[in-house]
Amino acid sequence: MADERPIALWAVPRSISTAFERVFVERGDFRILHEPFSMSYYFSPERRSERFDGEEIKEEHRYEKVLAEVLAPGERPVFFKDMAYHIAPIMDRELVGRIRNTFLMRDPRAVIASYARKWPDFTFEEAGYEELYRLYGYAVEDGQDPAVIDAQDLSENPDAVVAAYCDSLGIDHKPEALTWEPREIPEWEVWDGWHDSAQESTGIGKLERKEVDLPDDLEEIYRRCLPYYEALYAERLRV
């Protein structure tokens, strides 16, 4: 019997995760949910962050309601992309066991430099590495063998990495989904300005390898993130 649990791509910010999600949009055989738990983290009565203080708080964004949508059966299986830190308030093994968990990360130095240009005041939790690693641990405890992807690998060899990812999940690889026409994705409008590259692109672009200097405050966040990244990097898919 096919595993009907939703597939989650848990990521850190600025890791070309939306471009990866775009591959699944183009496949057409999944129901796509875009960062559903971000609404709970920032815009629900249970919000963890006051970053958007003054914005409307909605009951429909409560964690239990968003989770119900994620788990709801439908004609097509669910694929969703989200940041692991968005479920920090409810993360446990029982929840993780209801989902097929996969992971995407990137060198934290590159992530932090890019993130700081968008949100100069982002927190260590919003960097996402500790929660990504914690979620990975729960998935392993649940008996899963989750696919872990490094963004640099993905950008340099998208066909092979996506093929290995699909194989790990027991789903068909569709190479034709790796290229697309530029267009707006309505479901991404809630995070306007964050996903322009993924909408304007025609495929997964290659990430530049370069040295990045960080100011002292961001260097400290980098040092805290690095052990989690290195532990996950050791588990990455190799192609």
TrEMBL record:
Which keywords, in A-to-Z order, does the entry hold? Transferase
Q: Supply the Pfam families for this chain.
A: Sulfotransfer_5
The source's domain of life comes to Bacteria
UniProt xrefs under InterPro entries: P-loop_NTPase, Pyrrolopyrazine_biosynth_F
Select a single GO molecular function from the record's annotations and give it.
transferase activity
Q: Identify the PANTHER family for this entry.
A: SULFOTRANSFERASE DOMAIN-CONTAINING PROTEIN (PTHR48419)
This one is known as Sulfotransferase family protein
